[in-house]
């Protein structure tokens, strides 16, 4: 399958918590709504290859989360999961096309599952690519450190981010190389496309990433597993949990997290890391289409 991107989407704006947030609309508005939610330090254009293929049958919409892409930064915010969920709820309220089908990656997968657990009657199907948060082992290791130590580290991290200036790349090619360092499985074409849409050129000719550095901060409370499992258990629609076998993420069918869902299927994709939809595009599309049509 060619990775070439043809006619692109329109760019639209909505407001959530007084922030102007951008979303992409791929047209076909008479079709059922499919929402694509990207991961942390990513952007809506990272879905372009998926959106181009699925827009024939769906009205595809992909937001830039707050602090990402061309959406406004949340100055003074800690970019919590609940804020992102609220933003998605506001966007879907604006679009008002229920029931919706949702596909999310990583942070976007967590957002998608949380929203679906809050409004199970509004979602017909949900796909989460590595969207269950840190593995149980990672959380256990994190919580071995006391609350005092975790809070102190968080304060220091936030203060450090306040002093940190966005890294500047002298050329677009340098930024593309950094993109490929983050995911060596990307082709040159993929890395260039993701960088062009994920970075901006400054007045001095250098390039910087669009996301707010404060989105990097890790909460001192990590991931609220009991509440997340409660929300997962409230999901009534068919749920697909996708994982790359070469990712850091653990298998939810083995680590016990899959048991929290009423109607979930776990698919492990060979030869893929964390970005399954980039690493094995054709295979991911096959899996997604089969699930959506089932």
In terms of topology, how is this protein built?
Layout: E1 10-16, E2 19-25, E3 33-37, H1 48-54, E4 59-63, H2 81-95, E5 100-105, H3 107-118, E6 123-129, H4 136-143, H5 147-163, H6 172-182, H7 188-198, E7 199-201, E8 207-209, H8 225-234, E9 239-244, H9 252-255, E10 264-269, H10 276-279, H11 281-293
Parallel strand pairs: 3-4, 3-5, 5-6, 6-9, 9-10
Antiparallel strand pairs: 1-2, 2-4, 7-8
Short description:
By secondary structure, the protein is α/β, with parallel strands linked by helices. The protein is built from eleven helices and ten strands.
What value does the Rg take, in angstroms?
A: 19 Å
Order of helices and strands: EEEHEHEHEHHHHEEHEHEHH
Shape field: globular
**Major sheet:** 8 strands, mixed
CATH topology of one domain: Rossmann fold
- The share of residues in helices is 25-40%
The level 1 CATH classification of one domain is Alpha Beta
Using the 3D structure, state the CATH architecture of one domain.
3-Layer(aba) Sandwich
Average residue-wise pLDDT? 96
Strand content: 15-25%
Tell how many strands the DSSP assignment holds.
Answer: 10
CATH superfamily of one domain: Alpha/Beta hydrolase fold, catalytic domain
């Amino acid at each position: 399958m060619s990775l070439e991107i043809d006619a692109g989407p329109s760019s639209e704006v909505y407001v959530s918590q007084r922030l102007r947030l951008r979303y992409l609309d791929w047209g076909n508005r008479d079709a059922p709504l499919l929402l694509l939610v990207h991961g942390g330090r990513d952007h809506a254009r990272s879905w372009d290859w998926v959106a181009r293929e699925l827009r024939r049958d769906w009205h595809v919409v992909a937001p830039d989360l707050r602090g990402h892409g061309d959406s406004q930064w949340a100055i003074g915010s800690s970019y919590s999961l609940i804020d992102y969920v609220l933003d998605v709820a506001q966007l879907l309220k604006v679009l008002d096309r229920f029931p919706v089908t949702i596909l999310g990656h990583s942070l976007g997968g967590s957002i998608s599952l949380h929203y679906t657990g809050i409004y199970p009657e509004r979602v017909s199907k949900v796909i989460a690519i590595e969207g269950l948060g840190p593995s149980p082992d990672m959380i256990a290791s994190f919580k071995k450190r006391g609350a005092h130590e975790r809070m102190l580290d968080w304060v220091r991290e936030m203060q450090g981010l306040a002093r940190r200036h966005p890294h500047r790349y002298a050329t677009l090619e340098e930024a593309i190389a950094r993109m490929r360092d983050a995911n060596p499985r990307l082709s040159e074409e993929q890395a260039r496309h993701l960088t062009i849409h994920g970075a901006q050129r400054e007045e001095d000719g250098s390039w910087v990433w669009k996301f707010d550095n404060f989105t990097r901060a890790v909460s001192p409370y990590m991931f609220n597993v009991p509440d997340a499992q409660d929300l997962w258990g409230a999901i009534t629609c068919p749920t697909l949990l996708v994982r790359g076998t070469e990712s850091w993420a653990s298998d939810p069918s083995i680590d016990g997290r899959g048991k929290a869902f009423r109607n979930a299927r776990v698919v492990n994709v060979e030869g893929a890391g964390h970005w399954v939809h980039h690493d094995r595009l054709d295979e991911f599309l096959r899996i997604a289409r089969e699930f959506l049509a089932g």
